[in-house]
Amino acid sequence: METGSRIRHDDVIYQCGYAALEASVILSEQVPEKLTERFSPFFVQRTASFREILSGQAAVTARTAADAGAILTTEAGEGGIFAALWELWKETGRGFDIRMGEIAFLQETIEFLDHFGIDPYKARSGGCFLCVFRPEEAGRAQTAFEDAGIPVHRLGVFRDDIDKRLLHGEHVRFLDRPAPDTLDSYLKKTADRNLIIRRFIATPAAKKEKNDQ
Predict the structure, then answer these.
(1) Would you place residue 122 in the very low, low, confident or very high pLDDT band (cuts 50, 70, 90)?
(2) Is 138 within 8 Å of 16 (Cβ atoms)?
(3) pLDDT tens-digit profile of 156-173?
(4) Cβ neighbours of residue 198 under 8 Å, at least 6 residues apart?
């Protein structure tokens, strides 16, 4: 039997790790000079150091999920936590109720991404996992993650239909098809703009060199 077909109504969805932390690490590595225009160098350097935490945490999370009896485990990556939820829906064929307020980010992630206008829900989230457990095993699983030092948050439950519902208080919206990763889009735009600027700056010098020959 395929894993997705084993999912039942009221099975519990946990987020293990922080959403978009990978995106904030990449920004602190690739554009630190832009971040230090607003944030302290220590703050930026500390975020870059989370790269090692992400690498080690992924293996611990996967192992803990398996030991705790996870029915399904999927790592969020390109496209962020929203893309991971979409993939969860595709794999299981079931809708879910996700409490938006329970999706966990570090404060520096929110501040860094906001500085660049990047949507944290749609930004790279490697090292963050969605893990599914039976309701009767959910409490034990949460304790297992906590004991392993893994940040864990209960996001919601599966439904008995295909509605992908995102809940924010009394407001309900539906999860859309994943858009391009907002971090990747920003970095590509920045790289293209920098290339244009370098070419613009280099052109007069190149012309002068040619005229001097």
Answers:
(1) very high
(2) no
(3) 999 999 999 999 999 999
(4) none
Q: What is the DSSP track for 38-95?
A: TS-HHHHHHHHTHHHHHHHHHHHHHHHHHHTT-SEEEEE-TTHHHHHHHHHHHHH---
Mean pLDDT of 36-61: 92
Residue among 49, 7, 15, 30 nearest 135 (CA): 7
| Residue whose pair of structure tokens reads 């008995």 in the numeric block | 160
Query: How does strand 152-158 pair with strand 171-174?
Result: unpaired
Instruction: Give yes or no for a contact between 79 and 178, defined as CB atoms under 8 angstroms apart.
Output: yes
With a pLDDT cut of 70, the percent of the chain lying above it is 87
Domain boundaries, the chain: 3-212
Q: pTM, whole model, 2 decimals?
A: 0.86
**Residue-wise burial string across 50-70, b where 16 or more C-beta atoms lie within 10 A, e elsewhere:** beeebeebbeebbebbeebeb
Output the DSSP codes for 145-202: HHHTT--EEEEEEE-SSS-EEEEETTEEEEPPPPPPPHHHHHHHHHHHHHHHHHHHHH
What whole-number distance in Å separates Cα of residue 172 and Cα of residue 183? 26
CA atoms within 13 A on the CB side of 22: 27
**CATH superfamily ID and name for 3-212:** PurM-like C-terminal domain (3.90.650.10)
